[in-house]
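Notes, p. 3: input format for complexes.
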Amino acid sequence: MVSISRRMALMATVAIAGFAVTAAMADGLPPLKQKATYKVGFAQTESNNPWRLAQTASMKDEAAKLGWQLVYTDAAGSAAKQVADVNSMIAQGVDAIFLSPREEKPLIPAVMAAKKAGIPLFLIDRSVDPNLAKAGVDYVTFIGSDFLLEGKQAADWLVKKVDGKGIILEIEGSTGSSPANDRKKGFDDVIAQNPGLKIVASQTGNFNRDEGRKTAEALLQAHPEANIIFAHNDEMAIGAISAIEAAGKKPGKDILVVSIDGEKDGLQAIIDGKMGATVECNPKFGPAAYAAAIKYSKGEKIPATMTNTDRFYDASNAAASIADSY
Ligand code: AHR
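Output follows (326 residues plus alpha-L-arabinofuranose):
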């Protein structure tokens, strides 16, 4: 319930500044003034894979189309640097911040610092721990894929493909990141309901190709009986395919590979018969991110979560989809 003094303050705000500011304050969020152009920040996590490069290109292209000034930072895989990057954007007086938080907990101080500085912050792609910061209260919204569903879809495909039987190695994304946490949960929950399927090892490959390869190499040596690899992204799946081949086995025949993203090399691996399927996770956030900021500046209601609709790729559509990939 809103207290009398708070209600009066809100009414005064209506009179002075109009609906846009009031709507934001009523939620406890900093407003975004309506202006002809903006200076905004985009804090990227790292640039070591095609997915990240496609995301950055989309954010830069859209800013250029709108004629907005973009302050771009790359945290180079360090959550501490990403917090510092956001603090630097705040110091530079950006109007709004787009953040892809590398990990769920370490980026909370960045979210709170933007709120304290009166700068609206939009989470894109990855999220932060919902117990420590809330969408619609501490930051404007989360725009991204449903990572839990991605893990579930990969597992559902697998269950059908191997008729509920198999020995699985799981290669996880960066520890503490929302896609690694949620993809694991979505996948593992389905596998747990299928007694003929067993995950014998699950270890991080840090969402990059070479670490994925090294993790797969170690796990294949420790578990030569494994006949399935689930990787939390295509880059690690491609690394795992190299490890399978180096072990003298045939990817797609001796060992089935399933993953997430839908990057060009992932789709090519499906076409080549080395990977079974990949669940799309679309990195092209530019149009949706800037549209949300514009809507927000007009005082329009922004949902706390805006979920991307993603596709699913297997042998039936990989060739037709590869030209649109990155
Ligand atoms: O947060 C999305 C994930 O991060 C993508 O699946 C991965 O490729 C990227 O690094």
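The domain at 147-281 is CATH 3.40.50.2300 (Rossmann fold).
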